[in-house]
Amino acid sequence: xxxxxxxxxxxxxxxxxxxxxxxxxxxxxxxxxxxxxxxxxxxxxxxxxxxxxxxxxxxxxxxxxxxxxxxxxxxxxxxxxxxxxxxxxxxxxxxxxxxxxxxxxxxxxxxxxxxxxxxxxxxxxxxxxxxxxxxxxxxxxxxxxxxxxxxxxxxxxxxxxxxxxxxxxxxxxxxxxxxxxxxxxxxxxxxxxxxxxxxxxxxxxxxxxxxxxxxxxxxxxxxxxxxxxxxxxxxxxxxxxxxxxxxxxxxxxxxxxxxxxxxxxxxxxxxxxxxxxxxxxxxxxxxxxxxxxxxxxxxxxxxxxxxx
Length: 308
Hints:
34% of the residues lie in helices and 21% in strands. It contains nine helices and twelve strands. The longest helix has 19 residues, at 149-167. Strands 5-6-8-7-9-10-11-12 form an eight-stranded mixed β-sheet, sandwiched between helices. It is an alpha/beta fold.
């Protein structure tokens, strides 16, 4: 069993005092240590929650660590906390990455999704802003409230990351900072990567939800959505400069809707001057479904490419 005992910790994030919360500690130095921060108040956002994994040896050494930010943290580590009783096993994948690469594992900062507010926190604001009236109306149906992804991005880059860099022994440069998410989390990871090339040098967009809404409500290769995503890339991608960008998808369940969109994105990326295999990658996993077990199965491969 990964989680063994709980301590109470008080802290401050961006000048905001945190409520009392448990720091969940793992069994020993072979597994690393978990910290949990609950009910974080963030301007213009639902309350946020973090689960942070510190690699084995962090507490007994002095070296500094690179940092991976991941979305949907409730589905990253502990099945008992997850939405579907299955997880990415991100800590185990990071340890496997360390063994395979010979590199020091990265700190993983997991940001929980805010329940019913997940869609409006993860849908990139420029996509909504550029959408036609009819598409925007469909997005509004899903959001059930104003979009806050731009505020979420401001909070991640202006509050959360500076706090992590103060509190933990991090290597804060963009080459040492990555962001990964799946589905809508893939979209917000791309948005973060495009809007803040000075902060995020590596991004993994896993089973990216290119249809933005229920895929049955748009064409299989909806030209408006493809134009929106391609436009964001054209405007914000810039030169590689040592950055790395990963895309992938399965071919079953919800992922079955993604290949035509990803093919269009791949065609656009091929024209950007970014070199596939070095600066960006796109992979398909035959038979893989849109769920955590599928993402866990390929996360070591994702980490090896994105972080390597």
